[in-house]
Structure formats: structure tokens, C-alpha cells
What does this fold into?
Amino acid sequence: MTKNSDTGHIIKAAHAKQAEQVLDVLKTDPASGLSEQEAVQRRARYGPNMLRMRKKAEAWRILLNQFQSAVVLLLSAAACVAFISGQWKEGLAVAVVLVINTLIGFATELKAIRSMEALRALGALTTRVRRSGHDVMIEAQDIVPGDIVVLEGGDIVTADLRLIEASNLSCDESTLTGESTPVTKTTRPTAIHIAVADMASMAFKGTAITRGSGLGVVCATGMDTELGRISKLVEEAAPEKSPLEKQIGKLSGQLIQATLVITVMIAAAGIATGKDPYLMIEAAIALAVAAIPEGLPIVATMALARGMWRMAKHNALIDQLSAVETLGATTVIFTDKTGTLTENRMMLDQLWLPLGEVHVDRDAGQFLAGIDTLDPEKNLGLRQALMSCVLCNNAELYDAGQDGTGDPMEIALLLAGRVAGMEHSSLLKQLPKTGEVAFDAEIKMMATIHKAKNQFSVFVKGAPEAVLDHATHIFSEGGPKKLDQEQLSLWHKRTDELARRGLRVLAVAMKQVKDNTVLPYQNLVFLGLLGLHDPARTDVPEAIRDCHRAGMRVVMITGDHAVTARNIAERIGLTGENVTVIEGRHLSAPKDLTEDERRKLIETDVFARVSPSQKLDLITVFQSAGEIVAMTGDGVNDAPALKKADIGIAMGLRGTQIAREAAAMVLQDDAFPTIVEAIREGRIIFRNIQRFVTYLLSCNLAEILVIGLAIIVGLPLPLLPLQILFLNLVTDVFPAFALGAGEGEEDILGRPPRNPKQPILTQGRWATIITHGFVITLATLGALMAAHLWLGLEGDSAVTISFLTLAFAQLWHVFNMREANAGLILNDITRNKFVWGALILCTSLLLGATYLPALADILHLVPPDRSGWALIITMSVVPVLSGQIGKAAISLFRQTDKISKMKPLD
It folds into this structure.
């Protein structure tokens, strides 16, 4: 092989060469692909198939960012003031605080960023390649030049490929060319000097297969692909912040401005009343440092990252922070049926052929018509129906067991063929495939063409109504017979009968032709119906009940038959009343709907036989009614709907790569209960963020009020500058982190979705912040006055009382963050192990600051005696006791006033 670059590009102008010539240069065979040993050698030689699109955040840059914050600037100013005034001890102490604050910010931000990077790695793309004669799924980064890649509609192309087979194949190449119209692909060579957009014989990395199927050989990987060349120009793009992060950033900015104004006023008031100017300036700076909620964005990112990891553990993979917020506001879930509400464990259960009903006994390996065993070798009708199942198929079975690669429905058909002794590979040797018309979501059929002696056999499978519409004859042992209107009506009724049994129904047909270029769907001979069984998941009914309890509707949108969909909907308890079903053929465009028709659509439980464009219309109708829509999807045609929905949810097991790329969330187990668990986690994350924001701001407000009111009424300063800084490091940061890591209330799904337009801090939350801030302030100033009047303390001894009272009041204040309707003793705050860890750590640090001579000397603290500690403990618990009394009163008021428990709390 001739290598033309430093990575994975080993053949130039592949688009202009014959496919056979490219295969020869790459030393690979389309039937067997590379051996695993050869693939390992090529991977070592050419490197991984990766782009440098997203650089790993470097630790030194994260550390440098810490020195660009307002807190660092204020701390630096405080140190300068101390040094200028000759207070070297205080200046050095402020410098130490600066270092500690920076290290805490660095450590937490680094952990959050590394967590997000690791989370993104879970969503790596996979590709179906041919190795040693078998189709296997491998990670995209392991692809090497010469690999044979199997392409189907919905795949993301993960390397540059020279196409060697193409059936009805089209690609969306907008990522490369900017053109949104899909490009039709061919295996014929093109001119050598043409634009990328005109290279019809190539499929490029990063593009998407919009329809059809094909086979391609890898001729460029990594940075040598066309996408790689573009990525060299823009290797790093700034990550877009989620609306929640923007909201927190805006809130932080507004609070910084307000805090600076207030602290300047406090400093001016203190100087005007005769206090030491240097002390007041230093105190004002320290107060600004304590009051500015610099930790909000970091704690919010930590809370989001931790919550997203918990979702990942429950098989819900999210790498868009905005999706976390949307989950908590979701009001309607549009869900597919197969594999989401059902087990996606499909098996062919029945065939309805012209000779009658045939039951498949997989355990006995038999086909039964009544009590009689049918031999596929002797029964031509059964044999041809099974041949259509096996040959009109793109899946592949493993040598043993029930597993394979490909669509679960097609695997089920191959397994049925295996019962009859028909293996896919053996039949292909007898009837070599010469062409294929890939499945089209609009036509609802696919076809394969096979060479059979002096003619060609066309095998077709698809939706019963589509196949019957294109069939002109029906199979008969004596030869095909004309299919009249009466027979058509009869077969439509049989389709309904199979669907009522809860089976997914397909139809199969075939025809013999002399020319393999004829239209595949004309003049078909109908062979019969297939009924596939896919049982409902046992855990879905409970998940549906959870959705209803959480104020969310679940609506089924499926391409399946209406009767089948109704059967499953009733079985899983989709609604407590009669299931309402509308078929796609009865849907009108949103602009043509009357108000009554809109209302009827919004109240419908199941939409059956729905096309991709109709899914978009339904999302539009529901969103225009104010609903927040979550939409599940798995196919290439679901991608537009996944993007349009407020949150798109792709299937990780059976979903196409296009669907996964378009979605905000990927279900790694394709299970509906995982959606419910993710919504629960989304609500918990938002509630945790509300809590620690409320906690931080009420503590910060208390610190400002303690200093401000003391100056206004002429009291001595209740807190010294270094004490304020110490509080900022101890009682703010660790409890806030603990609240951000909470597991959430058990009844979080017992409330309706939140209003997405609702800010983080509602009027109720602001009232809570102000109330708690004033109570903590009064308790602190009350302790200071009691220390003067009752205990006769002065100077540092009195300030120690107010300092410790404020510190412990803020620590106990964390228990005020429980919900009003939560238990007094057992609630999500008391069950949070991180809260107890933070309390133990902070208490230890406060006691160390009080009793360690060196630290106590710097902070001007004097160890209190028993009466002093009695005063501290008594006054510090006042805020938490008043908070609990207030919550009890609110809860009692709601019960008395018959306010619903489903009412969301502010």
C-alpha cells in the first residue's frame, strides 16, 4: 500500500477510480473484509480514526481562569489595603485566603469539566463493518483503511468511503458542502478534478445516510478525511452554555453589582460615624468577597454533572445541559411502541397464507396448520413466504443462539427461516442477490432482487396495506391467481384480526421477471401475512402511572397498525379510560385544523400509521397549545422530529446514528421507564440548584445585614474582615456543594412539571431568602448585644460570640432547605450524607479556628466559656427553629385551605 500522508489516507482520488481498483490497492475483499489481525496492524500503522474537534481542557488553563474572577480581584485589593496600613499579619492571612479560594474553585471546576468529558465519551459512535466474513459493530475510532463498511439509512458515515454497492442510496452532506438537499450516490467513478459535492461515488465522514443501503471501503480516516481537513481550520469551538447556566451567570452579575453598591455604602457609613477608615475599607472588601456568589456557576456545573452521571447510570445519556432543564418541565411524552413500550424481543408467531393460518412453534421447530405439521420443503406457499422473510433482509444471525446484528424484526424473520432450515447465507448461494431497493418510510416497503437460473426473483416485504395496494395476484399451488376486490377486503380484515391479537403485521410478496431493471413494486404476487409477537415490557405500566402522577401525558405515535397499537396501549394502561386512536390518513396539516380538531388531537392517546412529516405536525400542534414535548425516535426519518421536539430522545440499541446525533438524550436500553427516571433526575437537579442558590444568597444577605445594621445603629463591628473571609470559605462553600449533590425528595414525581419560563428564583424563593437572611441577622446581632449586656464581654470576646453565632446559624440553616411538605426528621436533607459530612467538616474548622492559638490569634478569636457557648448555641438555633415553625405553618395552611399536594413549591 502507498501511504500519502501521516495518518490514514492511503489512496488518492478514489472517487475517480473503479471500485475494483480501489479494493485492489487497499488489499481487501468486500465479501470477507479485513481479518482482525490485519485490522490491528493497520490501526497501529495509521492511528485511530479520530478528529481533534474538541480538545481536552488543560488543567493549567482552568487554574489560570480562577485568577480572572471578581473575588480574586477583591481579595487582592484587601491584601493591598492590609499591607499599606502596616497590618502584615492580616495581609498574609488574606493572601492565604486568596490561595485557598483559588484552589477550591480550581478543584471543583476541574472535577466538573473532567466529569463532562468522561460523560461525552460514553456516547461514542459505532459502525457496522465486515471482518473475517462477519458483520460486527465496532467503535468508529477503530476503523482502519481497507475496512468494508455496511451502510443503511440512518447511519452516520464515520470515515471517507469509496462506494462499492449502492441501493437507492442518498447522503446528507450539509456538514461538508452546506447544501441541505440529499445527494444521490452511485458506484460509478466520477471525473478526477471535481468538487467534493460532485463526488457521487464517495461517502464522507460526518455525513448521514438519509435513505437506502450500500457498501463502502474505507480509503481515508481521521484527520485525512474531508471533514478532518475542515476541522484543522476550526479545531476548537466554544461550548454553548445552557439557558440555566446563562440564567445563573446573569443572576451572579446582577448580584455582584448590587453587592458592590451596598458594600461601598456600608464603608462610607462606617467612616462617617468615626470608625477606622482602613478597617472599614478592608471590611467592605471582605464583605463584598463573602457576599458575591462567585461559587454559583461552579456549584451549578457540579450539580448538573453529578445529576447527568446519575442519569447515565440509569441508561440515560445526556451531553446537552439544556436537556437537563427541559426534562423537569416536560408535560407530554411522545413515545414509539416497538422496543420502548415493548421488549423488542420479536419472534414470528403466526403466518396467514392463502392455504390458511400457520402457527410457528419455535421450541419444537415446526410450522403447524391446526394440528397438522407443515413441511416447508413440500409446501411451496410456506416455502416462498419464508424465502421472502430470509432474502428480503439485511440482518445477520450469529452461528448459534438467538442474537444477530441488524433490525430486531429482521432478526426474528431470519430465526423463523432457521426453523425451516433456511439459512441466509445458504439461500444467497442458491439465489445470488443482484440488487436491492432499500426500505422507504414513505412507500413502507423494501425489495431484493436475486438471480434464479434464466430469470430474476424479486422478494418484497412491507406494511400490509402497501403490499396489497401493489399486488395484482395471489399465490396458488396451481399458479398465481388474479387478486380481486373481494379478496383484497378479506386480507385487510385478516390484517386487522392479527393486529387485534397484539401482533405486528407485515406482508410478503414476490414476482418472477426476465429483466432485473424493472420496477420492483409492480404486479406483485401476494404471498401472505406475518404476525410478529413483541410482548409489552412488564415495567412499563408502573412507569406510565408515574407519568400520570407527575402530571405528564404519554402519547403513543407509531407506524404500526391502529389495532395493534390500541391492543398494546390498553395492555400497558396508557390511559385510565377508553383509548382514543387516530390514524395518520385522517390527520390534516396544522394550518388546516379547526379549534375543535386541535382539541381532539391533543386529547388523543394513540396516533397510528403516522408518517415522519406528520410527527412534525403533531409536535407543532402540541407545542402551540403550550405543551413541553419529549419525543422518542430511532429512524433516519425521526431526526427532524427529534430536533423539533423540546427534548429529543433517541434509542441507543436500535436507533440509527442520525437519530442519536439529532437527539438531546440517548436511551442506552431503549426502555420507557428510563425516560421517567431521567425526568425525575432532571427535576431533582433543578430543585437542587434552586436550593443551594437560596441557601447561598440568604447566608450572604445575612452577612451584609449584620455589618450594615451594626453600623447604622452604632454598634461595634460584629465581624472582622478576616472573619468574614473565613466564613465565606467555611459555611458557604461546603454546605452548598452538599445541597447540589442531593438525591432529591421521594415524591418529586408527585408534582406537576415546572413552568419552563419560571426563573430559578421565584417571588416565593426571594421571600424565603429575605426572611431567612433577616432572622439570621437578628439572631447574630441579638447574640452580640447579649454578650455586651448580660455577659459583660467587650472587644474580641464579644465579636467571637457574634462570629460563632453567625457561623453556626448558617450551618444549621441548611435544614431550612427542606420542602414544607417533607418530614421534619426524615427528609431529603437529613438523608443527604454530603450534608452531614459538610456539617462535621465545617464544625471542625470552626472549633480549630477558635482553639488553635495561631489561627485564633490571626482571626482575633477568644475561646468562649460555658455561658458564651450556651449563648452561641441558643441564638444559632433560632433561625432553624423559626424556619421549621414557618414550614409547619405553611403546610398546615395548605392542608386547611385544601391546596393540592400536586402544587409545585416555589
